[in-house]
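Notes taken during the Thursday session

The instructor put the following on the board and asked us to keep it in front of us for the whole hour. The protein is Glutamate 5-kinase. We were told not to look anything up and to reason only from what is written here. First, the residues (378 in total):
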Amino acid sequence: MNESQTRDKIRSAHTIVVKVGSSSLTSKAGLLDPGKLSRLVSALCAGIQSGARIVLVSSGSVAAGLRPLGFDSRPDDSVSRQAAASVGQGLLMAEYEKAFSRFGIRVGQVLMSASDTMRSSRYRNVHNTIERLLELGVVPIVNENDTLVTSEVKFGDNDHLSALVAQIARAQALVILSDVDGLYTAPPTNPHAVRRTFVKNAIRDVDDSSISGAGSAVGTGGMVTKIDAIRIATASGIPCLLTSTRNTGPAVMGDCVGTAFAPLRERVSSRRLWIGYASHPQGTIVVDDGAARAILTGKPSLLAVGTLGAEGDFSAGAPVWVADESGRRIARGLSAFDCDDIVSLAGKNTEQIERFLGSEFARPIIHRDDLVLVNGAQ
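Then, after some discussion, the predicted structure tokens were revealed:
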């Protein structure tokens, strides 16, 4: 699909997921900026009045709660950040409700965790809730449930969340708003950097070394996480647009701003997208050469007999890397066992496991439905 076709798809999208980050909603001091939020809402409402259905994935809850709790900057410990999110989420929603009400539009809060995208019953519930809100003319405002979420099932940033929400909502386009107006050939501070207007394949055609960098002082994402999110969305058949917050209006109206990314293929399951792109591996399972070759076919589960050991400290259900004997990471998956159990199971066949450890341990280390090849191995 070329640039013209991609932008036509974005322009004609009926349901659009828009993601906005903390830095686009807060002042330099880290306070929630009602003026920035109001301008964003005005631009979104122009798109809604033109017939688009908007799902807004909004960061800002932690940043909004910093000053009320007496923090001068984003705290390092997770408990303090969760406390800030608890206070800030209410303040954030109050500002959104006030801003959208000027246009006669109601908003609804949707707090999510990664498990909501991985379990079929929760996935359906989230989809049904968002769809019903849209049918009623309500703008769903989605954020990660930062108050309660644990590291094992955490998106880590709303860029990844927005890509999975786009799939859950069956959106026809994803718009990611940033501090810069698109993807550049080098960091924008480089005087020779040129904005790319179109990327045909976000997985193959974007050099990660040119987009590295940390997030803002009040947010968790950076350009790397935005490109990762775009890879998730385009891999599931959703065209994307990356641009700056000041281009929100033109973006949702389908104007030629920012960088457009073509969809790559038909949609795949949200669970596998989360495992492959958005999960944060807690450790590594090392496999022998025979198991590595089998995994690279994309078909079998990982069995104990092909496992050499485990690195790190993780529990059953945690996302992990799968690496071959040379240390090359070939896949990501959800471990069915704690790391200590994997060490005990390594190299044993089913008969040995049943005899010495019991039949409850005679199952795959990682089931094939929970195993996803990484890009370099595909």
